[in-house]
């Protein structure tokens, strides 16, 4: 069974940085893509960044130039480095994995990121 375990959320002041981690219970290259989504209260869950097994990394326009997604295949972990955080980045952040050897879509439990002004 696939498990995704997130860590690294917390409270930070505007302009600060956080790094989120998503540890997978399997080889991350078993998936077609892994990514991070976020959901603010009362809003839908939206893509923040996605890193495919092959191909171009995608970012939401709102985080381009501030957030970086990268992976460490030896640790089966995907990271989201978030710099210059803004209050509007406040949300629950979810790790996502989809497709590939394991059909379907998988989600982590979510980690809260709160940015104070």
Task: Please give the share of residues in helix.
Answer: under 10%
Tally of helical segments: 0
**Which descriptor suits the 3D outline?**
globular
Strand content: over 45%
Order of helices and strands: EEEEEEEEEEE
What integer is the average pLDDT? 96
Structural class, judged by helices and strands? mainly beta
The termini sit apart by 40 Å
Query: What is the strand tally?
Result: 11
The biggest sheet, with number of strands, parallel, antiparallel or mixed sense and barrel status, is: 7 strands, mixed
**Which spans of ≥5 residues are poorly predicted at pLDDT below 50?**
none
What do you see in this structure?
- This protein is mainly beta and 117 residues long.
- The chain is 0% helix and 51% strand.
- It has strands spanning 4-7, 10-13, 18-24, 33-39, 46-52, 58-59, 67-72, 77-82, 91-98, 105-107, 111-116.
- Strands 2, 4, 5, 6, 9, 10 and 11 form a 7-stranded mixed sheet that branches.
- β4 and β5 form a beta hairpin.
- The relative contact order is 0.32.
- The model has no long low-confidence stretch (mean pLDDT 96).
In short:
With 117 residues, the protein is mostly beta strands. The chain is built from no helices and eleven strands. The model has no long low-confidence stretch (mean pLDDT 96).
């Amino acid at each position: 069974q696939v498990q995704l375990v997130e860590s690294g959320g917390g409270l930070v002041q505007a302009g600060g940085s956080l790094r989120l981690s998503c540890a997978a219970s399997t080889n991350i290259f078993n998936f077609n893509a892994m990514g991070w989504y976020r959901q603010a209260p009362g809003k839908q869950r939206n893509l923040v960044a996605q890193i495919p097994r092959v191909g171009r990394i995608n970012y939401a326009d709102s985080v381009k130039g501030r957030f970086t997604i990268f992976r460490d295949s030896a640790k089966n972990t995907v990271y989201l480095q978030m710099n210059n955080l803004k209050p509007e980045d406040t949300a629950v952040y979810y790790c996502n994995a989809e497709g590939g050897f394991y059909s379907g879509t998988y989600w982590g439990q979510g980690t809260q990121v709160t940015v104070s002004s």
